[in-house]
Design goal:
By secondary structure, the chain is of the alpha+beta class. It is built from 13 helices and 9 strands. The chain has 3 domains: 78 residues, no CATH class; 47 residues; 125 residues, Chitinase A, domain 3 (Roll). Strand 6 and strand 7 form a beta hairpin.
Length: 352
C-alpha cells in the first residue's frame, strides 16, 4: 500500500514537472521543439505577418482562422527545421560563400539603392534574407543528394509515357509563343519591374512605350527591356514571356487589329505599338508591343522530336521528385522528436 502511494505521488510530481515545463517553455517564447531545438514564437509571428501582408484578404481573419493559419505555418517551420537538422548531420549546410554568391545573383539586376527599396517593401532585413537564402540552399543541397541524384528517367519511360499520352502532343491548331511589353495609362496600377518604373497617365504612357519601341528597333534586347520597364506584373519578371497561346484564344483575347498584326509576324519580329482599350469604357487603358518568340504548327508531334522528349523527361523527373520529396519529409518527421506547444495550447483552449 505504501509503495502504491509513493508511486502515485511520483506520478503526480512528474506530471506537474511536465506541465510546469510546458508553461515555462511558452513563457520563454518557444512554440515548438524539434529534437530539443526551439522554434520561437517571434519567428512564427514573422512568417504569419508576412503572409498577411502579401494576402490582404486574409487580414480580417477570425480568431479560429488565425489560429489555423498559425498552426499550418508552424507545421511548415517544424518540417523545415527537421530537414535542416538532417542536412547539418550530413554536412550539407550551405556555406557563407554559397550564400554570398546567391545574394550577389539576386542583387545583380538592381542598383544598391533599388535593392534596399526591395528589401523595405518586403519588410525584410539583410540578415533575415541571408537566413532565408541559407535555408533554401541547404534544403536544395540535401534534396539533390538524397532524392534527385537517385531519380532515373529511361528512354523506355519516355516512350511509354508518350504512347499513353500521344493525343496530348497532337496540336489541333497553331499556337504562338509570345512576349509583351505593356505600359498602363492607369496611374493606380501596381508595377513589378526592375526599375520600379510606372507611367503617370495616358500621355506619359504613350511617351514611354514610344521610347521603348525606339530602343527595340535599335537592337536592344526585348526581354531585358520588359524586365526593366514593362508594367504587366505577371510577365515582366520573366522578360515579358506570355507562354504559348492557341490561335483561337488569341483571336478571342485581342481586338482585330492586334490579332492581324500578330498573324503577320515571323519568329523574332515585334509588332508596332498596339493600343489597349478598356472593354467597358472603350477608353485607352494602355499600350503594348508583342514579340513572336516561336510558332507551333498544328499536327502530331512525334516522339523523335527532341522538344517532346525533353518535355516528357522533365515532367517525369519533376513528378517523381515531388513524390519522393513528400515521402522523404514524412520519413524524417517520423524519426524526429517533435513537441508542438502551440498546438497543445490551442487544443486546451478550444476543447474544454
Amino acid at each position: 500500500m505504501q509503495k502504491s502511494v509513493r508511486f502515485f505521488s511520483l506520478l503526480l510530481l512528474s506530471s506537474f514537472i511536465v506541465l510546469t515545463g510546458c508553461r515555462q517553455v511558452q513563457q520563454n517564447g518557444v512554440v515548438a521543439t524539434v529534437n530539443g531545438h526551439p522554434i520561437l514564437r517571434a519567428d512564427l509571428d514573422k512568417v504569419y505577418n508576412a503572409q498577411l501582408a502579401n494576402n490582404p484578404q486574409q487580414q480580417a481573419l477570425t480568431t479560429d482562422a488565425a489560429d489555423a493559419l498559425r498552426l499550418q505555418i508552424l507545421h511548415e517551420l517544424i518540417v523545415e527545421e527537421i530537414v535542416e537538422q538532417r542536412a547539418a548531420k550530413l554536412g550539407l549546410t550551405a556555406t557563407d560563400a554559397e550564400v554570398d554568391a546567391k545574394l550577389s545573383e539576386l542583387k545583380a539586376p538592381y542598383t544598391e539603392e533599388q535593392f534596399k527599396q526591395k528589401l523595405q517593401q518586403s519588410a525584410q532585413t539583410m540578415d533575415g534574407l541571408r537566413r532565408t537564402l541559407r535555408r533554401g540552399l541547404t534544403q536544395e543541397k540535401l534534396l539533390n543528394k538524397e532524392i534527385n541524384s537517385r531519380i532515373t528517367v529511361t528512354d523506355t519511360d519516355v516512350s511509354s509515357y508518350y504512347n499513353q499520352h500521344k493525343a496530348e502532343y497532337n496540336l489541333i491548331e497553331p499556337q504562338y509563343h509570345l512576349a509583351g511589353i505593356q505600359v498602363s495609362a492607369q496611374s493606380a496600377q501596381q508595377v513589378n519591374n526592375l526599375q520600379n518604373n510606372k507611367a503617370a497617365g495616358e500621355d506619359d504612357a504613350h511617351r514611354k512605350i514610344q521610347a521603348l519601341k525606339n530602343r527595340i528597333d535599335a537592337g536592344e534586347d526585348f526581354g531585358s527591356l520588359a524586365q526593366q520597364f514593362s508594367e504587366n506584373p505577371n510577365t515582366a519578371p520573366n522578360g515579358g514571356d506570355m507562354g504559348f497561346v492557341y490561335e483561337t484564344q488569341l483571336k478571342q483575347a485581342t481586338d482585330p487589329q492586334t490579332y492581324a498584326a500578330i498573324m503577320k509576324l515571323k519568329q523574332g519580329q515585334t509588332t508596332d505599338i498596339m493600343t489597349v482599350l478598356d472593354p467597358q469604357t472603350h477608353k485607352v487603358a494602355g499600350y503594348v508591343i508583342y514579340k513572336l518568340l516561336s510558332k507551333e504548327a498544328a499536327g502530331q508531334r512525334d516522339l523523335s522530336d527532341p522538344r517532346v522528349q525533353q518535355a516528357i523527361r522533365k515532367q517525369l523527373q519533376d513528378s517523381r521528385s515531388n513524390l519522393l520529396k513528400s515521402a522523404y519529409r514524412e520519413i524524417l518527421t517520423d524519426e524526429a522528436k517533435v513537441r508542438n506547444f502551440y498546438a497543445e495550447e490551442v487544443f486546451k483552449q478550444m476543447a474544454k
